[in-house]
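Severity: low
Component: inverse-folding endpoint
Summary: output formatting inconsistent between runs
Steps to reproduce: submit the following structure tokens with default settings.
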């Protein structure tokens, strides 16, 4: 019974046109390599080759692994995951996540 309800729910979600999901106030997750960073903006290049730029604000949170970090930790060439909020035509970074830098023993 639960599988049937879950399947119906999934079908309904997939039936919603994608353009309705890409509206202002929608959150995006972008992963890539940092290509530029300054006090106001960060840009990453995705695996698909697209460069995505986002505004940084005083409310942007930074993490290195699970530990808190700062803007100073964001360097060109590092992999990063950005949690972005679409505000009009602008993207604002809510969160910047960097690798922890710790070896996993492999």
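Observed output (run 2 of 3):
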């Amino acid at each position: 019974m639960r599988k049937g309800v879950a399947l119906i729910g999934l079908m309904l979600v997939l039936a919603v046109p994608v353009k309705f999901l890409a509206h202002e106030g929608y959150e995006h997750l972008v992963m890539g390599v940092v290509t530029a960073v300054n006090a106001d903006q960060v840009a990453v290049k995705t695996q698909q080759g697209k460069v995505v730029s986002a505004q940084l604000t005083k409310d942007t949170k930074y993490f290195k692994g699970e530990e808190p970090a700062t803007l100073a930790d964001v360097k060109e060439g590092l992999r990063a995951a950005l949690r972005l909020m679409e505000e009009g035509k602008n993207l604002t970074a809510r969160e910047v996540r960097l690798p922890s830098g710790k070896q996993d023993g492999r």
